[in-house]
Structure of dITP/XTP pyrophosphatase:
Amino acid sequence: MQRIILASSNAGKLAEFNRLFADAGIEVLPQSAFDIPDAEETGLSFVENALLKARHASRLAGLPALADDSGLCVNALNGAPGLYSARYAGTHGDAAANNRRLLAELDAESDRSAFFICLLVLVRHPEDPAPLIAEGRWQGRILNKAEGLQGFGYDPLFLPEGQTCSAAALAPEVKNQLSHRGQALRRLRRQWIDDVA
Ligand SMILES: O=P(O)(O)OP(=O)(O)OP(=O)(O)OC[C@H]1O[C@@H](n2cnc3c(O)ncnc32)[C@H](O)[C@@H]1O
Ligand SMILES: [Mg+2]
């Protein structure tokens, strides 16, 4: 069976990927299994950061690596929190504080439209000059208060277009069908299949 490293330390993403890869016949190992520390995310775009994370994990594990760089872009905030979604309120990964800041920033704002974006990069080796790259976007709007207990990050404040409840109130398999991450992974897998065919 093919083995790849998932170059992420985010438990919410890892749970979603495990479900998305359940039928793929690929063994997907989190970077924690190799004690790989987080890469420095110094890029100016999601795709640059995803490349940095994938190359870093592939180098340290000696295996192909898949990285996800993602975030929430709010139109009235000129795309913020954007690249800084994981540390919007200052501390990396403090979802409650990030959600509080988002609500405060949008306090009197009537345009609450937003989208999640996910860039996936797969490198077959650390210097891979032709990585596979796929993107997904999920449109929606920011609610006035948190709702739902599933998912992670900004899910409790995100009302997906066409839905009547937040992303955190959707069953995990429904979120994967609709989400930026689900879309990007399905696109990546099509490239992957074409690539080996
Ligand atoms: O870099 P890794 O280790 O993968 O983990 P991370 O949490 O730092 O991940 P990112 O740098 O890609 O930042 C993405 C942030 O965007 C938010 N985010 C991304 N996808 C999301 C989703 O599906 N639902 C809710 N929030 C999401 C959440 O705050 C994430 O921490
Ligand atoms: Mg990160």
Notes: The chain has one domain: 2-196. The radius of gyration is 17 Å. The domain at 2-196 is CATH 3.90.950.10 (Maf protein). DSSP finds five helices and six strands in the chain.
